[in-house]
Amino acid sequence: MKGKSKRILLCRLGGIGDVLHTLPLVKYLRKKYPAGSIEYLTSPGVADLLESHCPFINKAWRFNKKNKRQICLDILNKPNKIDYFFNLHSSLSFYFLNLFFIRAEKFFQYKKDKNVHAVINFARTYDQSVSAFELDSKTLIEQELGDLLNKYNLQENKYICIVPGVGKSRRHRSWTFENWLSLTKKFLFVEKDLKVVFLGGDDEKNIFDKPQDDTSMPGFKDRAVNLIGELSLPDTAKIISKSAKVISCDTGLLHLASALSKKVVGLYGPTLPGRTGPFTSDYKVLVANNCKCIGGIWDLKKCKMTKLPKGFCMDSLIVDNVLADITSDLSFKEIENVV
User: Fold this and answer.
1) Which residues pair with 76 in a beta bridge?
2) pTM metric for this prediction
3) Which among 81, 89, 170, 171 could disulfide-bond with 309, CB atoms 3.0 to 4.6 Å apart, if both were Cys?
């Protein structure tokens, strides 16, 4: 069929969540061009995730800022030229990469529109008429775990995942360590048969201090496992895929869980759930009260009120309210003395 063998290259670097928000577009393009080659240029760690868990991509290219020319030569060193190039950044930096190196037949430029969800916004880079009903949120697939669960003494659907960090650049989106600790204690008190697994990257390692090579957490009788900074992104996806639920602030791993169609509970303050909330059918969002940073023109990196990386509005999210959203049958009288 005409046009079905296009070679398509999409480009998005940066945060995990940003790339994951583009994947419904990738899946949409796969339906449009089932025989085409769909390729993705992104950061190395995210490329690993796409290669292992996204079946709609033929090839993930690892971007190297210091050697852009060589990457372009590698991309072009294939039998067919690039037909479509998608610059999924609002800046024009990759416009010039296409202009001088890739020289695709057709260039698509993303334009940020905060009035629609990021997933829809990215998809409309290809077609302005695309609606949410045409986009599928399940864009990552589960993979064989091997001995990964056994390594950490976990059982499928017998644990929840908590992501207590948000990276080092936007800490005003985060909940406090004390709240996460209280939530964990109360959850384990109520749900006797479940465990808690903490996930995150290198930026979150200091949230829960632990001895090197030790994932156990004192005081929880092996029912809380700290895997922050322990896993690759593909292995993190595997752990999430077998969990009962994921609880997180507005982070990449929240959107990773959404892409795997897992149940998620999102804690939001400075960012708009309507813009970056979970794009899936099975989610809950709790929003902080009276946040002065929400809905601003710019994606702020500091709290507008305190002028510090740490914000205060997220403290309006009460532990017991979050607990009620992650447990099925809950009695506050049973947990009122748990701290």
Assistant:
1) none
2) 0.88
3) 171
